[in-house]
Amino acid sequence: MLEVYVLVPVRKSFATIFLSVLSLVLALVLLLFTCMAGTLFGPLAVVFAALWYYLMFRAYKEYEYSYFDGEVRFAKVMNKSRRKAITSYIMEEVVMIAPAGDRSIYKYEQDKSLKVKDFTSHNKLKPYYVMVIQKGGETSLIKFEPDEQYLDAVEFKYKQKVIRSVAP
Asked: How confident is the model at residue 120 (pLDDT cuts 50, 70, 90)?
C-alpha cells in the first residue's frame, strides 16, 4: 500500500508580518543613528536585525497530513527541517471526512463544546475539509486541507466515511 502525504504551508499572520517590518525599520534607523552618533545604538540595532531575520526566514511552518493503511497522521514541520508529530488516528475512530460547511457535519460544526484542531493554511480563499473523530467517548473536529490523491487513498478502503466536495 502506498503512503500518501500532503504538505500545507501556513500563511503568516498579520501580526508576524507587522512585527517583522517594524523590527527591520527599527534596525535600519538604529543603524543610521549608530553611524551618526557612535556605537551607542549598535547592539540594539543587531537585536532588531536578528528579530527581523528570525520572523522572516526562520518562522516558516507547514502541516503534514499522511495516510497509510488505515492510519491518519498529522505533523508540524518547522523551517523545512524539524518535524514534530502532533497526533494520529486509526480510521475506526474517524466518523466522517467532509468539506467544511457540508450539511452532513453541520451539527458537529455548530457544537461549541467540541474540541477543534486547525491544521489549515489559514488562507480564507482555500477550501478545507473537516474530520470528525470519536475517541474514548470524546468527539473532536480536525480542520485540514487534503488533496485529491489523499482523499482517493482514504476512499479506496473507507468510501462510506468520505464525502467529496462538488466541483462548481
From this structure: very high
